Structure formats: C-alpha cells, structure tokens
Amino acid sequence: MGQEIPPLITLDNAGLFRSRRWLVRGVSLSVGAGEILTLIGPNGSGKSTTAKMALGIVNPDEGSAHRRKELKVRYVPQKVSIDWTVPLKVRRLMNLTGRVSRNEADEAMSLTGTLHLADSEVRTLSGGEFQRVLLARAIAFKPELLVLDEPVQGVDYNGEIEMYELIRKIRDDLQCGVLLISHDLHIVMAATDRVICLNGHVCCCGTPKTVASSQEYRDLFGDRAASGLAFYEHHHDHHHLSDGKVISKDGSVDEDENPSEGVSVKKFEHSVELNGVDSNVG
Amino acid sequence: MLDDFFSRALIAGVGVALVAGPLGCYIVWRRLAYFGDTLSHAALLGVALALLFQVNITLSVFLVSVFASLALVLLQRRITLSADALLGLLAHSALAVGMVALSFMSWVRVDLMGFLFGDILAVTPFDIAVIWGGGLFVLLILVIFWQSLFAATVNLELAQAEGMKPEQANIIFMMLMAAVIAISMKIVGVLLITSMLIFPAAIARRFASGPEQMALIAALVGIIAVFGGLYGSLQWDTPAGPSIVVAASSFFILTVIPTASFQIFKNSQPERPETK
C-alpha cells in the first residue's frame, strides 16, 4: 500500500515515577487512525497514568511519548468536577476548548441522547448524564483521537452496551483513533481492535481473543474473567465446583443434579458457549 | 473635568472596577480569595522596597506581587503543604518583612494608613492614566487568553490534553492579578483590594447564566459600588475606599435577603393535605 501511515500517538517503553515508586513502567503502545485500543487492568494498575502520558498531561520519566503534530484530540477524563461557583451550561461546555458550530454540537448531543439538556446547568446533571455530555463535547469537535477514561462509569448495564455501540459508530463515522480505558475486566467492547492489559507494566496485549487466552491474563484475573472477555453480551454469575455442581455468586450451591425449575436451567445455560473455559474452574 | 478631585476619583474607581470584576470571577471560580490577600500583603513589601530604592511604587508593587506568585508556584511543586497554608506563609512573611524594612528607614515618613486603605480622593491625572492604560492592557490580555484560562479553570488535565497550554495561562493569570493589585492599591488600599475582586463576582454569580456574562455583570456591579461608595462618602463624609467596599457589601446583602426570606416563607407554608 505504499508508505505507511504513522500512528496518532505512540508510547515507547514509557514509565512514570512518582513519590518514590513507579506508577507504571515499560509501556509501549500506539493508536492509529480508525483503531480502537482498550486498556484494562485492576485498580491502581496505571491505566489512567498511561493515558495521561499518551496525552502529554504528564511527561514520562523514562521512555518516550509522541503525538502527531497538530493532532486533534478530545479527552473525557475519569472524573471531572465543576465548581458550583462557575455558571456553566451544557451548550457553553461544548465550546470549552475549541469552537464547534451549533449544528455540530446539536448533532453530538442528540447522538448521546443529551440534546434535551442543552440549556441545563452542568452542575445539575446526574453522573450518567454528565458522562454522556462530556462524550458529546468530545465528539462534537470531530477529533482524530478520542481518549475515554472509563466512559461507562455511572452508566447502567444497558447504557453500557449502548455506549459501546456509540463509540464504535463514532469510530466508523470519523475514522478516528480511540483509546479506551475500562475498569470492567469482564466486558471489553466487541469492536476493540487490540487490548492491553496493564498491571504496573504491560501484562499482555493483543486482540481480545489472544489476551483472554493468555496465561498472564488468567494469572492476574483468573479464568472467570478470561471467559467473559470480548463476549460482552454475557455476565457470569456462578462458578462450578469440582464435582460439577454450580455455585452461584451469592455462595449458594445448587444441590439438585437435575434442576426442575426451568428458570435455573436457563440462568446457567450460557456457560456452555463460553469456550468451555469456566468448566475448568475448580 | 479632571480638575475636580471627585470626578478624578470616579474615573479612577470605574477603571479599577472594570478590570477587577472579570478577574475577580476567576478568583471566585478558582477559590483563590486568599491568593488576592497574599498578593496585597506582599504589595506592602513592594511599597517598602520602592521607598528604599527610590523607584516607582506601582512598578515595585507589581514586581513584588509577581515574585510572590512565582514563589507560590514553585513552593507548591516542592513542598507538600496545602495551598492555603503556603499562601498564609507567604502573605505574612511578606507583610512582616515589609513592616520591618519600613521601620529601618527612619528618614522616610510613610503614611501607612494611606497604603492600607488607599486614598482615592488624591488620585492625580497621571494615576488615572496608569489605571486606565494598565487596566485596558490587562483586559486585552484577559480576552486573548480567555478560552485557555477558562478551560484550565474548569479542568486542568482536560485543557492540557486538548492543547490549551493551561500552565502558560495560569502564569499569565498571576501576572494579571499582580498588575491589578499594583494599579488599584492607591484607590482602595492593600486591605480592601480583595473585596473589589470578590464582591462584584459574588454578586454577579446570582444573576449570571454563563461565565462571560458573569464577568460583564461583575464589572457593572463594581462600577455601581464605586458610584454608590463615592457619593456616600461625599454625603456622609466617610473615608472613600472603605465606603466603596461598604456599598459593595450592602449590594451583596440586598441580593441575598430576598431569596433567603422567600425560602423561609416557602418552608413555613403549611403542607397541602394529601388526598388518597
């Protein structure tokens, strides 16, 4: 295909040292146009720190971070608190760091279902509404790179799937790169191209399938998490005991070999289709 | 018109109000009220140094204020102490050093009261030129950097990620603060400068639905306070600087009372009996 298109952002062996410890170290990643990269990992594993290094909010203490020149970036931080002394309506927030036309703003707000909030004060919004407003602000600008730090926090389960659908659609429409941070180890967006699993360092990376089946990932999160990865329609609510009995999340063991209740059968039936991984748990 | 001391006072006061209002909004939004106090305390050290080295007082106050703000930025990076504690340290160190320096200069007779409370009725045409020239310059810079400064106020990391250069904006903001302190010291005095920054913004918050609107309303409120205070001081023969602040605080109380009493009234209303 001729010359290669350089990635939008690149981290090369980057690490950040704060308060006498490495928050994260040895991270290499790159996001290209039209690509979705998901960062997962436990709390304190350095996901947000990695995103901040990639965005240039902090400079890595070792390794390097590169962004393409004049890159149009929009960032949805994990937590934004707006002081109540600032009179700020949603419509004004849309233009916070760059001018977008009224049409573009309206379009982005209707995509995220927040158009009816356009004239509301930002501080009156609920957590989920605010999250969607921040996403609307980010996409209204039509960025080349979208960085989303836990965009589904405070969003209920259905909202989570809708949000992931929306992110996929945005990626398809704008052909922008997406760096997505997820706190949920179970559910990774199905449309994600690559997953990087962090735990103070890059623990493993690759397509959702390779990560899910990698030993490092299982060591870190256990087989249960692995089986859920990328199958974002499914949630697990049970283990299997060594004798094949089912133990639910609440700890109750299903003693009945042949559950007579149709509900309970239905409840567990999806365990079969998940690569058979969780039947090994014991 | 400039021959009349009262007109000169009005013109100077309006000039200060115009620039203190918008800048005061940032003081309120960023919760920096104590920062204004610190700079004004440091201003007294600036006065002492100006007298010692025989330089222009406004310039010296500006430089000392800039130095104090930079010291704050550096200390915040180095020392794990909360911002308010650092501001307290800086404010009182600067104030004390200023007083000690003044006491050494036995040959200088300083009217300390004049610096603490200002003397708006003694402004010269040259002072007016400094206030309006400096003030318009400050406003121009503020307008140019408005977007990045506002973005940095809402969320620093977001502004940084999206190329708004918030650190640069913050340093410019501190310079502007220092400039405002320097040019308005003579009008309201060191002790009352902070009130010219905070009162108009606090009053404007109640009426504003957007940040730019709040800045404009704050400037307007400041002008009203200047007129009210100066005419009041003429009427009742009270000190001019403090009278302006009294006018501003009366304004503030007026805007608070109606809703407060309204809410008490609302709460005391008997609840409608529920029908099942």
What this model shows, in words?
The complex is a heterodimer of chains A (282) and B (276). By secondary structure, chain A is of the alpha/beta class. Chain A folds into two domains: 9-222, Rossmann fold, CATH 3.40.50.300; 236-280, no CATH class. Chain A has helices spanning 47-55, 90-94, 102-111, 127-140, 157-174, 208-213, 215-228, 262-268, and strands at residues 9-18, 21-31, 36-40, 62-67, 73-76, 145-149, 177-181, 194-198, 202-206, 238-240, 246-248, 253-254. Chain A has a six-stranded mixed beta sheet, sandwiched between helices. In chain A, β11 (246-248) and β12 (253-254) form a beta hairpin. Chain A is globular, with a radius of gyration of 21 Å. Residues 230-240 and 254-282 of chain A have low confidence and may be disordered. By secondary structure, chain B is mainly α. Chain B has a domain at 5-191: Orthogonal Bundle (ABC transporter involved in vitamin B12 uptake, BtuC). In chain B, 81% of the residues lie in helices and 0% in strands. Chain B is built from twelve helices and no strands.
